[in-house]
Amino acid sequence: MRVHAPVLGGLLALAACQHPAELPAGPVAPKGEVWLSTDQVARAQIQVEVTERKPIAETLVTGGKVAFDDLLVSHVFSPVSGRVTKIEAQLGETVKKNQPLAYIDSPDLGSAYSDLVKAQADLTAAQHDVSRQRDLLLAHAASEAVVEQSEDNYRKAQAEMERAKLKISLLHASHNDIVSQQFMLRSPIDGEVIARNLNPGTEIQGMLSSANIANELFTIGDLSRVWMLADVYEIDIGKVHPGDPVTINSIAYPGETFRGKVDYVSDVLDPATRTAHLRVTVENPDKKLKPEMYVTATVTLGSQPAISLPRAAVLRLGDQSVVFVQTGKTEAGLLRFRPQPVTTGKEGDGWIEVTHGLQSGEPVVTQGGILLSSQV
After folding, report:
1. Torsion sign (Cα): 333, 339, 342, 347
2. DSSP SS3 for 86
3. What is the tens place of the pLDDT at every residue in 134-160?
4. Interhelix angle 107-138/144-170, nearest 10 degrees
5. Model confidence band, residue 17 (pLDDT cutoffs 50, 70, 90)
6. Which residues make Cβ contacts (< 8 Å) with residue 16, sequence separation at least 6?
7. SS3 category, 258
8. What is the rounded distance in angstroms from the CA atom of residue 2 to the CA atom of residue 72?
9. How distant, in Å, are the alpha carbons of 24, 156, 238, 280, 294 from that of 276?
10. Which domains does the chain possess?
11. CA dihedral over 247, 249, 254, 256, signed as positive or negative
């Protein structure tokens, strides 16, 4: 059979296509593993970190309310009854201790001054009588009984004088000989006028009156430090301790946080709500936190060392939580990764605890694990 050269070339080419030369096959990862080169890992931005035991802090979120610090607020009442004649302090004004707040025309103060002047006069008269009776006793013109009675009257006048002075002191008035009905209501502390409940001409009842219906006239407070009061349910009481840090957020200031520490947890539960009261002292130099403002408080509870990972490292495959662990290299230098089922626990700020499935020191994929999961 004679075959032309062009035909023979075509047949040889066809034979070559039907029986190609065998090439060495590349490494194939077994089922359940992913093999990648170093370049592939870099291009996929896969990050691997070695696990270690870190403190994982549990948090407790509860609602709270801002209140005055009891040591930095004073509710001002009038000790005397009368009519308001002048107001010296306005809302929002900063006042100093003993600064006048208002003037009150009060018969009670006039009566107290009259009692003081009368007591002074009686004391002077009793003193003169004692001196006179002693001189008469020395001249044998008076008996000892008369002198003793005179001395007793003098001591009574002294006691009455002290009583009148104490009453004037209770009214925060000065000890002088001028009888006046104008009472000066003063600020008991340094602070800001938070509330005012009187106007010129208002008739007020004093705390010393028998009516016992005295009303609060001023509220003076210092807002540079406030309290945050919250409730803790019975199930969480054992987790909260004085000194635990607290982060406070308010809808009035989105994105801004205020910080403090737990300084008190009540020992008695509220019988209606079954909660314990929690108190946090918060520095408030800008006076942004206002009394009666509602806030959200996040209490950072005590932490224990545990294996923890970034939340992005833990993936869900089916009904399991898994992480990808780097198990070494192949003979060809490829990095080996395999999914490892884990059990998670508490969660912290961007971290999650792994309670079972990992040991400290294992290299774990913390970023890019979702790409590996698609190759399993």
Report:
1. positive
2. strand
3. 989 888 888 889 999 999 999 999 999
4. 160
5. very low
6. none
7. strand
8. 119
9. 73, 55, 11, 13, 18
10. 34-57+305-373 (2.40.420.20), 60-71+222-301 (2.40.30.170), 72-106+185-220 (2.40.50.100), 110-180 (1.10.287)
11. negative
